[in-house]
Amino acid sequence: MSSQSFNVDVCLFDLDGTLVNTIKASEAVWTDLCNEHGVNPQELFKHSHGVKTSEVLAEWFPMLDNTDDKAVKYLEESMGRDHLSSVFAVPGAIDLLKQLDIDTDTGKKFKDKKWAIVTSGSTYIAFGWFKSILSELEKPEVFVTAFDVKNGKPDPEGYSKARDELCKTWNFDVKTAKSVVFEDAPVGIQAGKAMGAITVGITSTYDKKVLFDAGADYVVRDLSQITIKKNTLTGGITLEVKDGSTNNGVTVEAKDKQC
Questions:
Q1: What DSSP assignment string belongs to the chain?
Q2: pLDDT value at 3 more than 80
Q3: Domain 23-85 fold
Q4: In what order do the strands lie in the sheet with 3-8?
């Protein structure tokens, strides 16, 4: 099996659609709201994935009172409460995050994590996944939600904030530190590219052409196609992409293989 590798210092992950597949749950909640207020859900879905819930509400449902984020809270809690049976971890996500916590030279667990989460969701839903779907994992110290940024994706504010915090933890030079962003949405890919990161798209929500058009460097079906080849206390992280596609048109395995 052929593959391609790249080196980074820190790894940044979107959450919904990247680590946790919430597509059915999210669309069910939004469809109910659309039907209630006469909004075409298919039109909304063209623009809503990867965008802050508060921004979607403001643009598509200005009639709703979102004072103190109460509408955000209702929608996101409904996703985890009423539609949990349709939510599952993206294949390979849990194993990859566990690998990132281990020094490949010593086999010992790092004191601090080299990875962070940057989500357009709020704490209402984001933190909850680590009590249910991702309960095997420790919630990362660096966890940027919609409440932590002024500007949502595709603005790079969230990813830049997470990178800077990880660099401070590990004493990396933020000007030279290399990052990779894992995303399922075009706005997230654009945010990653805007802050200078390598970007890996996951086709849980959009097909690979849409992700490549947004600027993805690699596109994979899921995170089982990403493995850690090296990850040490004093060195960087070497990641390997198997059976994926690159933005130069090269398919890592067979040309007719679809992500």
A1: --EEEEEESEEEE--BTTTEE-HHHHHHHHHHHHHHHT--HHHHHHHHTTS-HHHHHHHH-TTS--GGGHHHHHHHHHHHHHSGGG-EEPTTHHHHHHHHTB-TTT-PBPSS-SEEEE-SS-HHHHGGGGGTTTTTSPPPS-EE-GGG-SS-TTSTHHHHHHHHHHHHHHT--TTT--EEEEESSHHHHHHHHHTT-EEEEETTSS-HHHHHHHT-SEEESSGGGEEEEEE-SSS-EEEEEES-EETTS-BSS-TT---
A2: yes
A3: DNA polymerase; domain 1 (1.10.150)
A4: 3-8, 237-242, 226-231
The yes/no answer on whether domain 3-21+88-246 falls in CATH 3.30.2350.10 is no
Give the pLDDT of residue 254. 28
Is 32 catalytic? The answer is no
Spans of all domains in the chain: 3-21+88-246, 23-85
The active-site residue, picked from 9, 16, 101, 217, is 16
What is the per-residue pLDDT for 255?
Answer: 28
Q: Identify whether 14 is a catalytic site residue.
A: yes
* pTM for the predicted model, two decimal places: 0.85
Q: What residue ranges in the chain does DSSP mark as E strands?
A: 3-8, 10-13, 20-21, 88-89, 115-118, 143-144, 179-183, 198-202, 218-220, 226-231, 237-242, 245-246
Single out the catalytic residue among 9, 14, 101, 184. 14
C-alpha closest to that of 195 among 180, 183, 210: 180
Please, how many CA atoms are within 13 Å of residue 137, restricted to the half-sphere of its CB? Answer: 26
